[in-house]
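Per-record layout

source: Murimonas intestini
name: Diguanylate cyclase (GGDEF)-like protein
length: 640
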Amino acid sequence: MTWNIAPELISLVILGIIWIYSRKGSHLPSLKNRMFQGCLMVTFCAMLSNVLSTLMIYNTDTVPLLLTWIVTQIYFILTPLMGMAYFLYTVSVIYADSPSLKKIIWTGITPGCLYAVMVLLNPVTRNIFDLTEANGYTRGHLIFVTYLIFYAYCVASIIVTLCNHKKIEKEIYRILAAFPLLAVLVIIIQQIYSDIILSGSAATCALLIIYLHLQNKQISMDYLTNLPNRQELLNMLHLLTNKYPVRGFTLLVVSLRDFRQVNNACGQQSGDAFLKSVGHFLSTIGPAGNVYRFSGDEFALLFTQENSDELDSCVSAIRERMALPWQINDYRFLIRAVMGIIRSADCDGSIENTIGGIEYAVSQAKSGKYGRVCYCDKEMLEKRERKHKVIRILKDKLADKSFEMYYQPIYSIETGKFQYAESLMRINDTPIGPIYPSEFIPVAEETGLIIEITYVILDKVCKFINRLRDLGIQIDSIHVNFSAIQFSQQDLSKKVLEIIESNNTPMPAVKIEFTESTLAENPTVVAEFAEEMKSYGIMMGLDDFGTGYSNIATVINIPFGTLKLDRSLVQASIKNPTSALAVKNLVRAFKDLNMKVVAEGVETEEQRQLVEEFGVDQIQGFYYSKPLSETEMAEFMRNH
């Protein structure tokens, strides 16, 4: 009997290429990756033994019969067990985190082990094949078991995949369902054309599909730096937390600051070269095989052992290197970096807590609150968790518009009456207790929730103004604070006017305030908005003047109705005559520009007398009243 082994030789070469490239891919020691390498090894050995056995059978006169027996025996053991290897790979993908994984694996290998025993007994039973000098190679009456075992494992792979299709991603489901089916079809063709050996081709086709879609190094590697990517880091963390929970780890993320400037100055190509250089440097000083590209200009170093000396040495090396200039082509520049560090012991081993904590640590390092290296400990994780709770509360309050509004009266020195007020949002009733503006305002601004919150506040203020008027209580205007991010909205003017008009509130009864930081960030946008609002009778107010963000030239070019002196100016003037003189002259200058000057944060009689000496028009502060609820404010206005 003769066989055509050309397809097997070609498939052997292709399989060798896949094996070589797969070794450059994911180094994650997961069961899935180990199983894939096992599939490659079993398939390669089966194909090689097949080719060698065929050649030896052709040359029984020159090759020792015993050697031919051994190689052929190996071929018959390994070939059907390729199906078992594919089955185990499928199981390792689907049941990776299942407690029943070991039981499924032991159940799955049992038929293969029994078949292997059957082949090992073949020299005695001759049930699978026989090999003699006189008759050469002949098939045994149980040789069909070889194909039966292979088919059984392929069918088992398909059944397991179909039964778990809801648990796995669609793409993975298609691959796991397709590759054993393809292998079965090729083997069926071989049985039809028995003189062509295609078992290796079937296996190679299946492994090629798996490699391209599930094991390709491009899935786990960053194309630019050739480092493992973020997903590979997540997979590694998942492996550590689930398979080795006792083994501690430390994650260090290095974030480059102002990297955009490198791209702007040198071009993207040089910027990419810089990232490669940084990645290469970190690979040389970081834990071997555990340096990852975390995001665009961030790199992660994973220490799989709790070794403080190694971590400290690495942090020091990064600091020293980042203090030196980088040379990329003709460009030479310095670039800063900040680092966030988190230990598994502090985040309870949760991947969500680990990634969330490290990103929070990096953001805090960028803020400068903790220096350029920020350790995310349990206290910081608690702060992060509280921040998330605040965000959820803000979203809930925004959804049902249940913010509480308070108002602080503003005293007019000229009339001796309280003709104005500032609106203040409060969140008192929450599962975590009262949340103060110093906490929820920055969170609202960071998340962008402040935009819709401000519109809700404006609507509530309009309704309160209408309520006061219905009660016969006269109030000239109520101040509403706008955040800097509010001015990023293209339809801001339209939205503001719609809210006021829908409530039938007089336009001049609303005064829009914003801080100096807003003016410094968006002077042109603010000026255009102020001019448009003025045309409708809505005046603008500048809050917290004196905190150092704006200059006089910018202020005088915007039609402000009022300007509030920050409480820090009042407090400084009490202690320092020079400061008092400067503030007094500022007040005079602004009044000459037809602005009303408000002194805020006035709490004592001494401060009240001082600001009146300055010549301010209005006074706001605890000296006259704390912020009041709507009912309290209405009563206060009625009595005053």
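summary: The chain has a mean pLDDT of 85. The first strand starts at residue 129 and ends at 132.
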